[in-house]
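Practice problem. Given the sequence and the SMILES for zinc ion, write out the predicted structure.
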Amino acid sequence: MGIAPKKHPPAEAAPQSTAAENRADCATFQFHGAARGKPRNPGIYPSVPQDRQREFEAAFYEGITRVKKWFIDKDWIAEGSELLTLPVSATYVPDKAFHVFVSEEYQFSRALVPAWSAQRGRMEFPANRVVAGEAAISHELVHVFFPNGNRFLAEGLAVYLHQCVGLNPCFPNYKMDLHQLVAQLLKTNAGPFNDVHDLKKINLEHLDRISTPDDMTFRIGQEDCDDASITYALAGSFVQFLIENYEPGSARKSGKCPTFFELYAETPLVPLVRNAGDTDRWKRIYRHPLSEIETEWKKLIQHHLQ
Ligand SMILES: [Zn+2]
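Answer key:
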């Protein structure tokens, strides 16, 4: 009885990847609505009219180009780089980086929380926003390309970038200047605000401690606020201030934001992990604690209150 020769394991295939997001067909779209009631799943119907579907798809691909151009122009990524490279296993080559769902069942658009749940590239948009031309496409693409573990920074950058490169108006500012919007919320006593002097009571350190996927909340006195139309406006305005007003002189003149990038890169999104970052990082990176930076931002908002 001889000893059977050991079989050589099959040669390992060289690791491959597919660069999907720069291709013209990198997304799959579903516009289905499912009729409720009995019998179960009685029918599937389009949640958005055909012409609006094509319009949305075209805006989505245009959004990819515009959002990536912002990151390239700011030196966050190199020209031609891919952020959503999909792993290839044996002969199966995934060919869609984005899975986009549009349904009337969704109340809000979402991409960040799915990314946190290890489904980066899954995006949801409410049908009514798509039909109205108010889908937050650029906002959600920011979450897919650069998700963050700090919810305040993640939403702030998404709101700000949609304002910069988004083609359409969308929540929360519908193209209104973000600093102006914060001033207006204070002036109109929105949410927890009772007076324009409540600007002083806003505590951004509290917002900075909130990690993805938790909802942003803050407090004015004893009054809690989790209204996204307010928290998103604060986040967007503050990130705009950091990028446009608070970079050291040379970077600001060249239109770049290396300091903000350093801060943002401190808290990358790791699926299923809550990490908002430590409070000391502000002083380490900006040489000032968040409380001092916040004071400077409030001076800017004060200017809009006059
Ligand atoms: Zn968002």
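Check your answer against the key. The chain has twelve helices and nine strands.
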